[in-house]
UniProtKB/TrEMBL annotation:
Name this protein carries in UniProt: Dockerin domain-containing protein
One GO term of the biological process aspect: polysaccharide catabolic process
Keywords: Signal
Organism domain of life: Bacteria
Segments forming domain Dockerin: 498-564
InterPro entries noted in UniProt: CBM2/CBM3_carb-bd_dom_sf, Dockerin_1_rpt, Dockerin_dom, Dockerin_dom_sf, GH29D-like_dom
Signal peptide boundaries: 1-30
GO MF term (any one): carbohydrate binding
Length: 564
């Protein structure tokens, strides 16, 4: 089997290793993913005296485009970058942008934060760079590591690269002082890059090199774009060349946030923390409207790209956003944050378009349960009616109403459904479940002043005391099976009268040791007796239920006493 020189392993195994590395962030590729969302704004932060991250300035991409330049300081030139990636093979990057000192100077000059002009980036001070495809995994550099070392573009790298050996064949020739360009680290606003040689996998620029007369330098000058803005570009050092080090993974694409953390005491103090924003979705036909708000005075809201790769909030909210031809079966999630200069950001909330808010003109609904009598007694059957009412006229397309009835308290008799409604029954745990459903794709017009008859349930109480019918589902849908949000439903608690048998704590009609156990568990907090059960358990007639009552019931069952 053919083997790669210098590695001594089968080619298929080497390719497998390379594929694995392709999915390790910061290793085989310039960022955590192959695609992400463009950073339309750059957020500049600094840690304050307490370690809180304070917003200094939000710089729009359009402003950075107005500041960008190439190696000679003009917009007509470009910056060159030579690199080695993990393949290993030489790569090339060309771009226009803003140097790190220029970015910091601009921020200090433009921010409204008090004492921000005293912020420094020297020595062991650190800058953190956050990218859209990995906002929780920033890279960071001290001044000494980032700006304290000379960096260059080495055009001879491509001439003296030994592809078979995977290393530079003549280091001295590549390091020739007369054939290299000093280049600063910078944030590229527009850039382009790739592998240089045609026989390499993945994105390569060999065709552009050929068009440029076989010269790598300048081959991309007319092809720059901002799809990977902002790209942090760190040119090579002499040591990188001497060691044939892979450095292309140091490039970070889609940088949207830069944070300064001074090694000493920060001169700035946060003025507070911005409150969380809100984000609501309303649907009219197939047009989705997105509305965002923040109660914090002076705050601005940013949100992630709709239909984008990430939930990183990089777009300024300026007013309601509409999405045409919205498909409710394919919802999306937005990351939303509120910020203000001089303050710590709000939390980044996640807003799901599946949670549609009602239109202001939509009605509010109330499900109700009512018994046909106030005098409810054990053994006497009565009826509970279910209705649906609204505060506005509406068209009913669908509904579901589910009630849980405790089997220990009631036996369920006849169930009937209103016009157009259907019902079903089931048992679950210690409850009888009755579900009423309605479906009419054409819709039924309903007037607000007429409660809609859902159905009724006949119940027979089995014991005295109080018991509750729990509503576990209450839904009303509009056209398109979209649910209304303003739907309320309250449980129904019923008081059942009946003869109390002293000592019958579990309401089964006889007094046994189980009743003594019930009282003991109630006193221990392991279960809760109903009002009727409490009355039966208080065999000492002292107004409370204690372990003395449990003892007296035990004595009664054992025949030690014959009455309470």
């Amino acid at each position: 089997m053919k083997k790669i020189k210098n590695f001594g392993i089968p080619i298929f195994l080497l390719l497998a290793v390379m594929l694995c590395l392709a999915f390790v962030p910061g290793q085989a590729q310039a960022a955590g993913t192959q695609d992400s969302d463009k950073a339309n704004n750059l957020f500049m932060y600094a840690d304050d005296v307490y370690g809180d991250r304070v917003l200094l300035k939000v710089i729009p991409l359009s402003t950075l485009k107005g500041m960008m330049h190439g190696q000679d300081g003009t917009v007509n030139s470009t910056c060159y970058g030579s690199f080695i990636d993990n393949y290993p093979t030489p790569t090339y990057c060309e771009g226009k942008g803003v140097t790190i000192p220029e970015l910091l100077d601009y921020t200090r000059a433009q921010t409204s934060v008090a004492h921000a002009g005293d912020l420094t980036y020297t020595g062991d001070d650190k800058l953190y760079f956050y990218s859209c495809d990995g906002p929780e995994s920033p890279v960071n550099y001290t001044y000494s590591d980032l700006l304290g070392v000379d960096r260059f573009y080495f055009p001879q790298l491509y001439k003296y690269w030994d592809s078979e050996e995977g290393e530079i064949s003549d280091v001295d020739a590549v390091l020739d002082e007369d054939d290299r360009y000093k280049m600063p680290p910078y944030l590229a606003v527009e850039s382009r890059g790739g592998r240089v040689f045609a026989n390499t996998y993945g994105n390569n620029i060999s065709g552009y090199v050929a068009t440029n007369g076989g010269i790598v330098t300048g081959c991309l000058r007319n092809l720059l774009e901002d799809t990977e803005a902002l790209r942090l570009v760190l040119p090579q050092t002499e040591k990188n060349i001497e060691d044939s080090e892979s450095t292309y993974s140091d490039i970070r694409k889609w940088v949207y946030k830069v944070r300064l953390k001074e090694d000493g005491t920060s001169p700035i103090t946060s003025l507070g923390t911005v409150s969380d924003p809100t984000c609501t979705f309303t649907l009219s036909g197939d047009t989705l409207t997105i509305t965002m708000n923040c109660a914090y005075s002076g705050a601005s809201i940013y949100y992630s790209t709709i239909g984008g790769y990430t939930k990183t909030p990089v777009n300024l909210y300026t007013g309601p956003i509409t999405v045409d031809d919205y498909d409710p079966d394919h919802p999306f999630t937005l990351g939303v944050v509120a910020v203000r200069e001089g303050y710590a950001d709000s939390a980044v909330i996640e807003a799901d378009s599946a949670h549609i808010s009602d239109d202001p003109d939509d009605p509010s609904f109330v499900y109700s349960l009512a018994a046909d009598t106030e005098d409810i007694e054990t053994g006497e059957t009565f009826t509970v009616a279910a209705t649906l009412s609204a505060d506005k006229d509406y068209t009913l397309y669908g509904a579901e109403y589910r009630i849980a009835i405790p089997t220990a308290a009631f036996s369920v008799g006849t169930v009937s459904a209103g016009d157009g409604w259907e019902y079903g029954t089931a048992t679950a745990d210690d409850d009888t479940i009755v579900t009423f459903t309605y479906l009419n794709t054409g819709g039924q017009a309903v007037e607000a002043d007429t409660p809609l008859d859902i159905g009724s349930i006949s119940l027979t109480p089995l014991q005295a005391g109080t018991a509750t019918l729990d509503v576990s589902e209450a839904i009303v849908t509009k056209e398109g099976a979209l649910p209304y949000n303003s739907v309320t439903a309250e449980d129904l608690t019923l008081a059942v009268e009946g003869d109390v048998i002293l000592g019958d704590a579990n309401s089964d009609g006889v007094v046994t040791m189980v009743d003594a156990l019930y009282v003991s568990r109630h006193v221990s907090g392991l279960l809760t007796l109903t009002a009727g059960q409490m009355e039966a358990a208080d065999v000492t007639n002292d107004g409370g239920v204690t372990m003395v009552d449990a003892l007296r019931i035990s004595q009664y069952v054992a025949g030690v006493i014959t009455e309470f």
